[in-house]
Amino acid sequence: MRAVKSFFIAAAMYSKIPVPQFPWKEEDMKYIFCFFPWIGGLIGGCIYAWGWICGSFHIGAVCHAAVGAAIPVLLTGGIHVDGFIDTMDALHSYGSKERKLEILKDSHIGAFAVITFAVYGLVFLGAFSEIKDVTLWKVVCGGFFLSRCLCGLSVVSFPLAKKDGMLYLFADSSHKKIVKGSLYLQSAACIGLLVYWSFAAGLLVSIAAGAALWYYRYRSVKEFGGVNGDTSGCFVLLCEGCVVVTAAAVQIFLADMI
């Protein structure tokens, strides 16, 4: 029963999926991050379904790419975008760790955050529009699951920037051994499936996601002293961007190896 409640809390917190509402108790939060990747699985499934619709009804490439790129934001309510923007604001302040953590809590949006997100969106949309192979679509869709597996692992494994906030509450309440074991298993299964679909694309996408995780840990510890809710949202976008750009590069340069 607690696992079911953890699933509902994960869906309520990290998506716009309508789920039953109930008071959140600490014991109900033990397994939240076990189910976090499932939100990515839903996003990937919707993007794949949209691709099938576009192919069946001959919808143009621009509409296909624009709506496909919007699906993750629509299903999550933009929670990870908010984290990305806040993190970019903090990083471009070039202040102390304490000042950067203060900026993360500030609801105002700075110019550098807007510019960075605009550039990210253009690169993501451009890469997204280049992916035409059905097998590559499967790999990209699986990447949304993998990004949340790695994000969940970072929450229960990396240093935390501060001892307050929603992410700290979830991390502190988690049954870390079970959560880590579940996420490692789900990550391995996802990578195995990506490689099964396409050895070259699956391997390169997995390496790109792993590189994004390494970079995320390095920058988070260096700039903030650890991770928090905003930096976690930033990582999800960073990882998904790496997945899409890598898949686009495979489409362009390694099409014969798909």
Helix content: over 70%
What is the H/E order?
HHHHHHHHHHH
Distance between the termini: 43 Å
- How does the helix and strand content classify structurally? mainly alpha
The portion of residues forming beta strands comes to: under 5%
Query: How many whole angstroms does the radius of gyration measure?
Result: 18 Å
Explained architecture:
The protein has helices at 2-14, 32-56, 61-76, 79-91, 97-105, 111-130, 134-157, 166-173, 176-197, 199-224, 229-253. The mean pLDDT is 92. It is globular. The termini are far apart. α1 packs across α2 (32-56) and α7 packs antiparallel against α11. It is mostly helical and 258 residues long. It contains 11 helices and no strands.
Give the tags:
single chain, 258 residues, mainly alpha, 11 helices, 78% helix, globular
